Amino acid sequence: MIRGGKMTNHGKVRRLVAWGLVGIGVLLPGFIHAADTPETLNGGPLPSGFKFYPATHSVAIERTGLSMADGTQMAVTFFKPADASASRKVPIVVAMLPYRKDDEFYAVDHGIYSYLAARGIAGARIDIRGTGGSDGRLVDREYSDQELDDLEFAIGKLAALPWCNGRIGLQGKSWAGFNALMMAMRQPPALKALLVAHASQDIYANDVHNIDGILHLDIFSQEMETDNIIPKSPNYPLDSAYFTDRFDREPWIFTYLRHQRDGTFWRDGRSLFTAYDRVKVPIYAIGGLLDGYRDFVPALLDHVKAPVKAEIGPWNHAWPNDGSPGPNYNNWQTAVRWWKQWLSDEDTGILREPRLTAFVRDTLPANDDYAVTPGSFQGFNWPISQLMSEKFYLEVDGSLGPKAGKGGTLTIPCVPDAGIDVGSWWGERTPDLRNDTAGAVVFDSAPMTESRVLVGQPSVWLKASAEAPQANWVARLEDVHPDGAVTFVTGGAINGTQRESRTHPKAIAPGEVLELRFPLHFTTYTFTAGHRVRVVVSNTQFPMLWPTPYRQPTRLQVGAGVSGIQLPFVKSTGQPANYLLKAVELPVPADFQLLAGSLGDAPPPSVTREGGWTTVGQNEEQAWKIGTASFLDQEAVEYRVNTVDPAQAGFRGHGRVVVKKDGREVEVKTEIRVVSDAENFDVTAYRTVSENGVVRGENQWRRKIPRDFQ
Fold first, then answer.
1. 18-213+262-354 CATH, one of 3.40.190.170, 3.40.50.300, 3.40.980.10, 3.40.50.1820
2. Per-residue confidence at 598, pLDDT binned at 50, 70, 90?
């Protein structure tokens, strides 16, 4: 099964199963662990000059503090080669994020950074101020100025440690990948290279808050609301500092809903697309075809002048070593080679490999029920020289073809709850969509006479109009099998009010003809001979995209070449990726134990339709022990829309974390509610903290926030 592929594996989701903790291991100071061999993923020979790094160092782990410029103590865990010293200096790879290193990310950090340290590369894992084990007041947003200032200061301070060679790398998936790209724009002198997975060059339209410029409320919002009020590790005190610095801080949901359009909040020093030229350090970038952030990989290849090594695999929001579905490979050996190249001046052969390694998917089954994706990893130069884009035109008779026919107009009915089967991120699911055409117009090509391979970002152009002042347009690319089954390939959307500017949206005039152009998200796919290419155009994608307040249908002009799609086919495939090594099992700490409820898939989303309302629910649960301490984390969200009046929509989340340690139990509970009407979002956040069953604190916020072209 696709773990995390059923609407459960979101932007920064912290599920234990997503950590890849599939085995039991022991790592003790003085012992070398996580040995692996240079066996390639496909069994082919390694390329000439390939350098493989076995484990050669014992590993020492140290938990301590790091003083910031204002004296705030940040919690840091060092994973060091045991022989690192002033006479044997090593580089340090750093990750700073709020995903708590002493409890929630304890095991995954241990596995990754122990692997690197056993090969001569130290790691420093830091909790952002006001989170995890760090002192200070919780920051007011993701990637705040304070967070970036702290990270920049930490880079300089770590580089000056007597056992560091003065060279720092930033490494991270998701959050730590985001702030690594932002730090590259700041250019701290000691920063020499990045390794980023599932990050974004555009945090307005390519993050969990606004997908394609349209409001998206994610389970991540609920998860962070809960995480942000967990007391400081490792003792979880409920003292005055806890209430001042964490519990009484306004929830982030209000901050994000106050910024519904693009602008300086999203851009300045944060969105890389505004300042590609500021990046001077090499980047190893990783994406996944089932992940919402994959477009940052081709964006870096296109625009960053510094060396970029890029990989895109078939998995979800996970590292290649354990992403789902497979096949997987040992990206940590590649990471060692990357860091040795840039932080230790060793020629590892990594620069002689293709700039892009992409998993080229064969035709997929029209279901989520596969553990290994059919296809192969292939190496490409960039830009892809053998690319040959082809245009297909949308026709009035529902056909899709290379020649434009007679013009006409089609009506797109508004069905507020359409699109559920696609999931809540573009590409996270590949179910059979043959019956998911409500509220859409559908265009099918003739059967393919030969197999065609797609690699890149398709682009769509539409000529459309609306009677309402606001409308979204959604396009999906699908594969129609000869038996009628339909596989989702990729998709994209545009907020019609942002047709000219994301920073200055404007209402649509009734009947105004709009020229809409937008990309679909990066993909690879093989359309086999006998299959048909399908394009589905709609105005709704629920629950991924928040519904507009209007039910009026829109008009789509077709024929005469006015609406269509451009598909980036490759003339020939790339070269075999013999430089990818088999996945390895990372070490798991001896005192860590997963408990019942944490292994396997989260349950698929529930869908109910009753009394004119459609509700989609999802939940996650994880439980684990570290030594004698036990942890339980439960998160659940539901989305609602009124199918008669889509102005009435809602999001509701619940979170609960219980920590039991030394005969003491601390429990935090949170709830977020967002309810819309035609004009406003009514937002409520509620939280409590209890100790041994007695409520110690309770807070509630309620705000009415105007809709801003959402």
1. 3.40.50.1820
2. low
